[in-house]
Amino acid sequence: MKRSYFLLFTVCSLLFSVLLWGCGGGGEGTFCSKGAEDIGVDICVTVTPKDSSNVNAFVTDCDNSGTIDSKELLKDHLATVSITSKKINPQSTFDPYPITIKGFTITYIPDRIDSPGIREFTPLGPVNIQLFSDGTISQDVDLVDIERKDEFAQDINSGRFNSNLPQRYTAVYKFFGEKFGKQFESEGWTTFTIGAFCE
Ligand SMILES: [Ca+2]
Known about the structure:
Number of strands: 9
Strand content: 35-45%
Number of helices: 3
Number of domains: 1
Bound molecules: calcium ion
Order of helices and strands: HEHEEEEEEHEE
Helix content: 10-25%
Distance between the termini: 58 Å
C-alpha cells in the first residue's frame, strides 16, 4: 500500500515538474476549473495567439514608403480562447446549464527578471460568455492591447530594462463566474514574444 502511494507521489511530482516546465518553456496549457464540483461542470480554457505569437509594439515604416501608413499603426493583438465545458456526472438528470462566465483577467509573466512588467489586463466592458451545454465555444479576446504595447515600448526606450528584442512572456488568463452562489474559475495560458515586428 505504502509503495503504491509513493509511486503515485512520484508520478504526481513528475507531472507537476512537467507542468512547471511547460509554463516557462513555452506553448500553451490549462488548469481546469476550481470549484467545478460545486457547479457540476468542469470548464477548461485554452488560449492561442491570433495570426502570430509575435506581438508588434513599435510603429515602424515596414514597407519603406517614407511614411507611417494606417496598416503600420499599432492595433490590439488578439488571442482565441476555446472554452470546453463538460458535466462531471453525465448520468445525472440535473441540468447545470446555462452557465455564465462573467469576466477574466490576464497577467503577464516575463521569462527574464530584467524585462519590463506588463500591467494586468481587465476588459473594459462586461464579459458574458454563456455556456448552454457540453461542448467547446471559441471567442477572440485581447492578448496585448495598444495601451500595453505603448507602455512596453516606453519602458524599453527608457533604458531602465533589458532592451534586447524580442522578449518573451507568458499570458495567464483567469476566467471566472458564479453559479448557485458558488464561484468558479479556470486558467489557460500561452506564451508570446513582443518586440518590433512587421505584420
Ligand atoms: Ca510605410
